[in-house]
Amino acid sequence: MHLVERLKQKEEEAYLEVMAAYGDYLLRTAFLLLKDYQLAEEAVQDTFVIAFQKIDQLEDEEKLKSWLTTILLNRCRSQMRKSRWKVLLAPLDLIERTKADSQTLNPENALLFSELHESISTSIQQLDYKYREVITLFYFNEMKIKDIALFTKTNENTVKSKLKRARLLLKEILPEGSIGI
User: Fold this and answer.
1) Are 98 and 157 in contact (CB under 8 A)?
2) Is the whole-model pTM more than 0.85?
3) What angle do CA 80, 85, 89 make, to 5 degrees?
4) SS3 helix, strand, coil % of the chain, rounded to 5?
5) What burial letters (b/e) apply to 105-123, b meaning 16+ CB within 10 Å?
6) Residue 88 predicted with pLDDT over 80
7) Comparing C-alpha atoms, which of 31, 67, 34, 29 is closest to residue 50?
8) Beta-carbon contacts of residue 128 (< 8 Å; ≥ 6 apart)
């Protein structure tokens, strides 16, 4: 029996499989959008609760990840609408295991790599939500423009415009030569 069918049958093991398969991906996405680890965890939990309650609405198992992402984006947008807050950004490498963990870098390069990630993360967090959203989906989640447009329910040209504007803003914020966006 397929995973979605098992979810529809309320099989507990299927719930655990979905959370294990998509939890880290959703948490990273939510954190990059919300800038707060606890709010990100809450958004992911809400996403799973909503998804499990409405699993009968999902017909194509191949769209499970995109369906979960859509629910998460809506939860993050809801969080942003409910409150206007500023939080200090925890370095991105606390959330995302950097490539430095799996590579044998000398201490100097590892430090430079870590500082670059922190600089990029801090810069992204300075952007308005609409720009953080497209940057996160495009660069960190490696989505195509077409998919971002579907998830955000906007026109592809709007996504391209937001992405272009976000890049320009990042170039203004980031230290010169730190990244080629």
Assistant:
1) no
2) no
3) 100
4) 75, 0, 25
5) beeeeeeebbeebbbbbeb
6) no
7) 67
8) none
